[in-house]
Amino acid sequence: MPAVTSSDGPVAVTGASGYVGSHVVVALMKRGYTVHACVTDLNNPDKTKHLLALNGDDYSGHLELFFANLLKEGSYDIPLSDCSAVFHAGTPMGYGGANNPRQIYDGALNGTNNVLNSVKKVGTVKRFIYTSSFSAIHHPMKSGYIFTEKDWATDNRESDPNWSSSRIDQDGEMAYSMAKVECEHIAYHFAEKDGRFDAISVCPLTVLGPLLSRVHERVNSWQWWLGRMLVGKTCERQWNALWNIVDVRDVGESQALMIESDICKNGVRYQLSAANESGEIDVLQLQAHLQELFPQINVGGPPEEINQIIKKYGAVYQAPIARCDRAREELGLKTHAIKDTLYETGQTMIDLGLVKPALK
Ligand SMILES: NC(=O)c1ccc[n+]([C@@H]2O[C@H](COP(=O)([O-])OP(=O)(O)OC[C@H]3O[C@@H](n4cnc5c(N)ncnc54)[C@H](OP(=O)(O)O)[C@@H]3O)[C@@H](O)[C@H]2O)c1
Question: Using CA atoms, how far apart are residues 28 and 107, in angstroms rounded to an integer?
Answer without folding.
Answer: 26
